[in-house]
C-alpha cells in the first residue's frame, strides 16, 4: 500500500511540474521617468527592439547585430497619433502580448489602443483597435 501511495504522489508531482506555463508575456525593464521622449521596448527576439516616441506614438523597429550588414532601424509608423499641441512626454506606452510579434500601444491620456506588429517589411503594421 505504501508503494502505491508513493507512486501516486510521484506521478502527481511530475504532472504538476510539466503543466507549468512559461510562455507568459515578456517582462519589460522600463524606466519610471515619465519625462522621457523615447523609450526602447524589448521583444522576445534578442536582436529586435521597438523605439517609441512617447509624445506622439511614432515607432521604429531597431535591430542590432554583431555584423554591420544586419543592423538597421526601420519605420513601423511615422504618423503622429495626436496633434502637435497635444504631444506630451510619456503619453504613449507599449505593452507586450503573448505573441512574439505583437504589442498593444496605449494612449495613456485618452485610452485609445493600437495593435503594433513588427517583423519583416510585409508583416509590419499599426492597426487601431476600436
Q: What do these coordinates show?
A:
With about 130 residues, the protein is mainly beta. Helix content is about 15%, strand content about 35%. The protein is built from 1 helix and 8 strands. It has one helix at about 1-20, and strands at about 40, 50-55, 60-65, 70-75, 90-95, 100-105, 115, 125-130. It has a 4-stranded antiparallel β-sheet with strand order 1-2-3-4, with no helix packed on it. It is extended and about 75 Å long.
User: What is the number of strand segments?
Assistant: 8
Low-confidence stretches: none
Largest sheet: 4 strands, antiparallel
Distance from first to last alpha carbon: 60 Å
Average pLDDT for all residues: 85
Query: Which strand order does the major sheet show?
Result: 1-2-3-4
Percentage of β-strand residues: 25-35%
DSSP summary: helix tally: 1
**Oligomeric state as shown:** single chain
**SS-based class:** mainly beta
Helices and strands, in N-to-C order?
A: HEEEEEEEE
Rg over CA atoms, rounded to whole Å, is: 21 Å
User: Helix fraction?
Assistant: 10-25%
- The coarse silhouette is extended
Please specify the SSE layout and strand pairing.
Blueprint (H helix, E strand, L loop, with lengths): L1 H17 L19 E5 L5 E6 L5 E5 L8 E6 L14 E5 L5 E6 L5 E5 L7 E5 L1
Antiparallel strand pairs: 1-2, 2-3, 3-4, 5-6, 6-7, 7-8
